[in-house]
Write a structure and sequence with these properties.
Layout: E1 7-11, H1 17-27, E2 32-35, E3 45-50, E4 66-69, H2 75-78, E5 88-89, H3 96-112, H4 115-123, E6 141-144, H5 150-159, E7 164-168, E8 177-181, H6 182-192, E9 195-198, H7 212-217, E10 223-226, H8 235-243, E11 249-252, E12 272-274, H9 284-299
Parallel strand pairs: 1-2, 1-3, 3-4, 4-5, 6-7, 6-9, 7-8, 9-10, 10-11, 11-12
Helix pairs in contact: 1-9, 3-5
This protein binds NADPH dihydro-nicotinamide-adenine-dinucleotide phosphate.
Length: about 325
């Protein structure tokens, strides 16, 4: 009888499975690596590593013990109505926080130093120093979501000298950062922030949060950076707010529909910077370090780190 190995199954439309297979086979030799769509003996699948699997797929593996998501956000997975009731483990930072801090720093400096205007001047070869630069002490950056990524972003922006505000569900005390929470806290947070950075997870409470009412609470000279989820923002409300100068501009990495449709007016809006969902890219080797150590924890009877709270939705 050939020896039967438990299986670690993999599903991702965007990742190169060879990288994942090589590490899993090296570091977890008791397991066999297989692609979830092609597993024949489904009863041997013990763990699944997934990004955006089709609804219902995970429920076909009756002995599945845990699901590992190859990203920080779990909104897409939690929408599967047949998701089995087993632990879901996500990536916690895994190299994304640093990338996202750099993305935000680029946006904040671009807005504060008025680089957009110089880009326009260069096109028409206009030599025009803009002497009015706002002191950074007056240019507050507000980070919505103070989790694994938001906290790193807030701390790195603060280190540059910008005043940083943070908003989360629960009250927090963080050195050098003024924190707010709840609905009342949001009103004060939005009134003060010159740049509002969305780093929230997508849940019932955060879907369509950035709507007309929200944008009206921001100041007319403020900017929005959305690197959380596209479904947080009502794009039509943003376009209207830009048109009516309710806010000054936006830098968007995530959209209601991705890829952003060609006819979407955000593509060529003069006050909007568009990037294709790249602010925090999964770094396979760092992600694998986390996943492998969590599988080892589970195998030795422990509790994995970065467990998703299914009730909270993140
Ligand atoms: P975490 O789960 O670690 O943190 C989430 C934070 O959001 C927590 O501080 C939480 O508050 C706060 N929060 C949740 N719901 C609310 C609410 N209703 N009101 C106020 N605050 C709320 O998430 P991560 O930092 O790891 O990631 C955040 C999100 O970033 C991901 O869910 C994903 O959507 C997005 N992301 C986008 C990427 C991209 O490439 N564009 C890449 C990676 C992530 P509390 O602490 O009180 O619980």
């Amino acid at each position: 009888m050939p020896e039967v190995h438990p299986v670690i199954g993999f599903y991702s439309p965007s990742e190169d499975e060879v990288i994942w297979k090589t590490r899993i086979e090296r570091d977890l030799p008791a397991f066999q690596f297989e692609l979830l769509e092609y597993v024949e003996e489904k009863q041997f699948v013990k763990y699944a590593l997934v990004w955006s699997p089709p609804n219902g797929l995970l429920n076909t593996f009756e002995n599945l013990k845990a699901v590992f998501v190859l990203g920080a956000g779990v909104d897409a997975l939690l929408r599967d109505p047949n998701l089995p009731s087993i632990p879901i483990v996500r990536l916690e930072d895994a190299g994304m926080a640093q990338q996202m801090a750099h993305y935000v720093i680029y946006g904040v400096l671009r807005f504060q130093r008025r680089f957009e205007e110089y880009e326009d001047f260069q096109i028409i070869k206009q030599w025009k120093p803009l002497v009015h630069i706002e002191p950074i002490e007056q240019f507050s950056v507000g980070v919505m979501g103070l989790g694994a990524i938001g906290l790193v972003v807030a701390e790195q922006v603060s280190r540059l000298g910008f005043p940083v505000l943070g908003w989360s569900t629960s009250p927090k005390e963080i050195d050098g950062i003024r924190t707010f929470y709840g609905e009342d806290g949001l009103v004060r947070f939005l009134a003060e922030a010159r740049v509002v950075v969305d780093l929230l997870p997508l849940t019932a409470a955060t879907e369509k949060l950035i709507n007309r009412k929200f944008l009206n609470r921001m100041s007319a000279d403020s900017f929005l950076i959305n690197i959380g989820r596209g479904a947080h923002l009502l794009e039509d409300d943003l376009l209207e707010a830009l048109e009516q100068r309710v806010i000054a501009g936006a830098m968007l990495d995530v959209f209601e529909q991705e890829p952003l449709p060609l006819e979407n007016p955000l593509w060529n809006h003069p006050k909007v910077i568009v990037t294709p969902h790249v602010s925090g890219i999964t770094m396979p080797q760092v992600a694998l370090d986390q996943i492998i150590s969590n599988i080892k924890l589970l195998e030795s009877g422990g509790t994995p780190k970065a467990l998703v709270d299914r009730k909270k939705g993140y």
